[in-house]
Amino acid sequence: MKKILISVIFVFVAVVMAFGQQKREFRGAWIQCVNGQFLGMPTEAMKKTLAYQLDELQKDGANAIIFQVRPECDALYESPYEPWSRFLTGTQGKAPQPYWDPLAWMVEQCHNRGMELHAWINPYRAKTKTTTVLASNHIAVTAPQRVFAYDGQFIVNPGMAENRDYICKVIGDIVRRYDIDGLHMDDYFYPYPAAGEKIPDEQLFRQHSNGISNIGDWRRYNVNLFVKQLHDTIASIKPWVKFGISPFGIYRNKANDVNGSDTKGLQNYDDLYADVLLWVNNGWVDYCVPQLYWQIGHPTADYETLIKWWNKHSGNRPLYIGEDVERTAKYPDLNDKNRNQMPAKYALHKQMHNVNGTVLWYAKAVVDNVGNYGTMLRNVYWKYPALQPRMPFIDGKAPKKVKKLKPVWTKDGYVLFWTEPKGKNWKDKAVKYVVYRFARNEKVVIDDVTKIVAITTDTYYKLPYDDGKTQYTYVVTALDRMQNESKGSKKKVRL
């Protein structure tokens, strides 16, 4: 009797979890190069490493990859403007041998797995502390007057209009030539404050203040101009490419702003000159991913305080939460010392009306299953597929229904075929399809994520034929580039 009761409870919990899962949820992971994980790695070895990470992340339920392609005014892709990255080949300016284009390859690999690929760039950083030799075509060599040194780094000066134009030119080239789904920037705007260091831009401020009397306001003004310009650049080339930013996790502390969070850490607005809420509220970004890397109960930057703050103040655009996998696994739950903080954090996600997804820092930690994190995603939190959150401010109209839905016997078995619906342009053209399966007498409810059997770019689905005695209803819907979903086409099949 006890075993039966335990089984019933387990099934009940599984059903509750399934119906508690959002059908639309951004499930991303950052794959960075700046930590040196690929530095000097042979082409085939890097492809094998990335393919393995993508396979594991796909099994874990991820539907988006944020891949670092421009860490220091360089490129992990074939750029006409900037040198090959040393984080790829070991030497800045040296092309990979055998030759390949990591960004092009990653776009193809992610799309083959049903994932989005967001190209991640660092806009202003021109040299990290560990880089010692720059290529001859690097901006700090060709235009040193447009770059300043700070704490062992080089920073492209945000106060210069020509630098805004230059970065937009570089990014515009990526957007034009690669079939990316998003363009992503992280938290590096003006440099993080370093003791004893001063940003050398006072003369530029006096010459080009634009009537602004405070240098902090002027710096924020410079970054604001750039963010809007980059948003408009991307939208003018490919309106469907999403522009996202992952800022530092504290906007402002309450001590400096009555509307700030009850925290005591470094601030976007005051220390990095990044007015993130202005960008969100003005629609200059398409999604926001604050990096909430701290634990619940952190003394100066409590996770629970911050997720509630962002949920309240950043709802004008899709809000995703940047999660630190290793720190989440490291710290125990405040109410149960025998488990880590993953369940408590994901419970908070469910409570936040404006939180539409998660981005994991970093991909390798998930793949390595630190603290059983990947296993929990795979079996509980991301067990069932999810579509991307809608962005009606870009496009909110669904494509037409698929046509000619029909099961056909082929040499490869029983296959369900359909025809792509007609679409005139990117807004109504189908690019993916969702296949649902319902048992006999089950109500057809496509909001039930447990009924999704495939999200595919194909116009067919191989049916799991057994003996032809069991009836199912299959429903196929079409998705456009913004994952607006059409009405379903139904077909009853015996398998």
Helix content: 25-40%
**Could you give a short account of the major beta sheet?**
8 strands, parallel
SS class: alpha/beta
Number of helices: 15
| Content of β-strand | 15-25%
Per the CATH scheme, the topology name of the largest domain is TIM Barrel
Radius of gyration: 24 Å
CATH class label of the largest domain: Alpha Beta
Strand order of the largest sheet: 9-8-7-3-2-1-13-10
Tally the structural domains: 2
Overall 3D geometry?
Answer: globular
The CATH superfamily name of the largest domain is: Glycosidases
Distance between the termini: 35 Å
Average pLDDT, all residues: 95
Unreliable parts: 1-19
The overall strand count is 20
CATH architectural label of the largest domain: Alpha-Beta Barrel
Short description:
The protein has 495 residues and is α/β, with parallel strands linked by helices. It has helices at residues 2-20, 43-60, 86-89, 102-112, 139-142, 161-177, 202-207, 215-237, 268-272, 276-281, 303-313, 325-330, 342-351, 363-367, 373-381, and strands spanning 26-31, 64-70, 116-121, 125-127, 147-150, 153-156, 182-185, 242-245, 287-288, 319-324, 332-333, 336-340, 355-361, 403-410, 413-419, 432-439, 452-456, 460-462, 471-479, 489-494.
